[in-house]
Amino acid sequence: RKEFVDLYVNYVCNESIRKPFEDFMEGFLRGCPATKWKMFLPVELQIVLQGHTKVDWHLLEKNVTYTQYKRLDQTIRNFWTVFHKLPEENKKMFLGNISGISELLTALSSPPQHTFLHFRFSIVDPQEENPDEIYPFANTCSLILFLPR
C-alpha cells in the first residue's frame, strides 16, 4: 500500500504536470531569461513576483479624499476602524472591488507598497434622504466609494 500511495502521489504531483510545466517554463524563460533572475535572492524574487505580503494600510488611508465628509466625522472614523480590523485578504479584496488595483495596476494579489504612495480614491456621502436604506457602493471608473452616513 505504501508503494502504491508513493507512486500515486508522485504521479499526481510530478508526472501528470511535467509536460504542461515544461511548456510553461520554456515560454516563461523566453520572456524572462533565467540569467536575469539570478541577481535576486529568493526572498527578493518573491517580493518582485508576489508583492509585499505586509501592506501599510495607513498609507492608503492618508491618501483618501472626502466629499461631504471630514476626516474626523464619525462615519469615516467608524469606516477606518472596521477596515483596519479586517483580515489582510479582505482588505485586498475590498481594494480590488473599489479600484481593481490588484489586477489593474500590479497584476498581483498583493499590491506593491509604492502603489499606495500615489494611489488616491474618494469617499463620498451620497446624501440620500434615508441613508439606512442604501448600501455602500463604488464607482470603480472614478475610484469613488459612496458611503452613506
TrEMBL record:
Any single GO BP term: protein polyubiquitination
InterPro entries per the UniProt record, alphabetical: E3A/B/C-like, HECT_dom, Hect_E3_ubiquitin_ligase
What reaction(s) does this enzyme catalyze? Answer: S-ubiquitinyl-[E2 ubiquitin-conjugating enzyme]-L-cysteine + [acceptor protein]-L-lysine = [E2 ubiquitin-conjugating enzyme]-L-cysteine + N(6)-ubiquitinyl-[acceptor protein]-L-lysine
Keywords (alphabetical) are: Ligase, Transferase, Ubl conjugation pathway
Which residues are annotated as active site? C141
The enzyme class is transferase
Q: Which Gene3D superfamilies match?
A: Hect, E3 ligase catalytic domain, Hect, E3 ligase catalytic domains
State whether keyword Ligase applies.
yes
In what residue span(s) does the HECT domain sit? 1-149
Q: Name one GO molecular function term.
A: ubiquitin protein ligase activity
> What is the protein's given name?
HECT-type E3 ubiquitin transferase
Source organism: Podilymbus podiceps (Pied-billed grebe)
